[in-house]
Amino acid sequence: MEKIKVIIADDHPIVLLGVRELIERDPRFCIVGEAVCSKELVELLKQQTADIVISDYNMPADSPYGDGLKLVEYLKRHYPQVQILILTMISNQLIFTRLYELGVVGVIQKNQLHTEIELALNAVARNEKYCSPEPLRTSVVELTAAMDERLASLSPKEFEILRLFVAGQSVSKIARHQNRSAKTISAQKNSAMRKLDVHSDQDLMTYCLKSSVFN
After folding, report:
1. In DSSP terms, which residues pair with 52 in a beta bridge?
2. Could you state, in chain order, the average pLDDT of each consecutive group of 10 residues for the chain (215 residues)?
3. Calpha distance 112→104 (Å, rounded)
4. C-beta separation of 198 from 146 below 8 A
């Protein structure tokens, strides 16, 4: 039987190694490429046919293909035949919902990698979607009900902008990579801050760190 071809993309060498070792244990699959950024991933897909891409949600943002939702949208538009599994530490159900709407076949929590990867691969081999169990919050600070409600009120675009901003990107850089105006990005960032009831960039950083929303 022909093996299922897999490409792995993650900017952390230890994660790449761990995923590779887990996949290599299963004779149904073979790894045909590895990438450490979205640019390398897309270059691989241009040269090498693949059945599955297993990609980190957060990757270096200096690639023209971005990461997160932007990368998934690009892959589904240009390589619709490829099934996508996402690796992440994010536990925002809004983003999970959007990823499944875009067509990913599964989302795997990195802190559950060893227990979930086999389940996810089994589901994909059967042409089924893999739904991860409710992710465990690992923060020492319990999220309050108010935090949950506020975070849930963010749109996927607002959440994505905050993720990139907290990761250290400026509004102008986010706008450039998202192919949108700085005015639009700034307005969506400000809208997200109002929903979270924070009034400064420092308060925003503190809020996100306290809630461990981006881990």
Report:
1. 6, 83
2. 92 89 92 94 95 91 82 94 91 79 90 86 87 52 60 88 86 90 93 83 71 65
3. 18
4. no
CA distance 168 to 150: 22
| Residue 165 · residue 59 · CB < 8 Å | no
Q: What is the CA radius of gyration of the chain?
A: 17
d(CA 96, CA 102): 10
Helices (H), 60-181: 68-78, 93-102, 113-125, 145-152, 156-166, 171-178
DSSP one-letter code for 58: S
pTM of the entire structure?
A: 0.69
CATH homologous superfamily for the domain 4-125: Response regulator (3.40.50.2300)
Q: What is the DSSP secondary-structure string of 103-129?
A: T-SEEEEGGGHHHHHHHHHHHHHTT--
The strand pairing partners of 34, in sequence order, are 8
> Can you say whether residue 66 is alpha, beta or left, with left for phi > 0 and alpha for psi between -120 and 50 degrees?
left
CATH of region 145-211, choose from 3.40.630.10, 1.10.10.10, 2.40.50.140, 2.40.10.340: 1.10.10.10
Q: Write down the domain spans for the chain.
A: 4-125, 145-211
pLDDT recorded at residue 143: 42
- The token pair at 35 is 């990438």
Cα 55 from Cα 170, distance rounded (Å):
24
